[in-house]
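The pair is set out directly below:
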Amino acid sequence: TKGVFSTNPGYAGFRCPMKEEGGGWVPDFNNRYFTEDIPESFAIYKGIAELAGYSTPMIDRCFLWAQAHMGKEYVTGTPGNCKLNGKDAMSTKAPQAFGFATLKEFLGITPPSAAKLGINGFGR
């Protein structure tokens, strides 16, 4: 975790965006690292794992932590059992937001069902 970020050359120079608040420093949850990376990339990983039937306890923990500070709801549930079906899930780039309900549909093995468009059946 901390070692991954401190020793991986791909993360060299990256810092958590912070803002001064109450005489100290806190993460800036309005920074693009949160407002763009969570729904536009992180959600894709969660969505594919969900389609494949894989439990993602650490991804779930990250989602639950970030969304609580962002005023968003992408996932619901508890770590290891979260589903990408929160009120803001349709604003992500997850496969489910584009109508994919199964891994076979996502991989193009079977066509998407028109009746299952998007999360909660609402389509994108």
Q: What stands out?
A: The two ends are 34 Å apart (CA to CA). The domain at 27-121 is CATH 1.10.1040.10 (N-(1-d-carboxylethyl)-l-norvaline Dehydrogenase; domain 2).
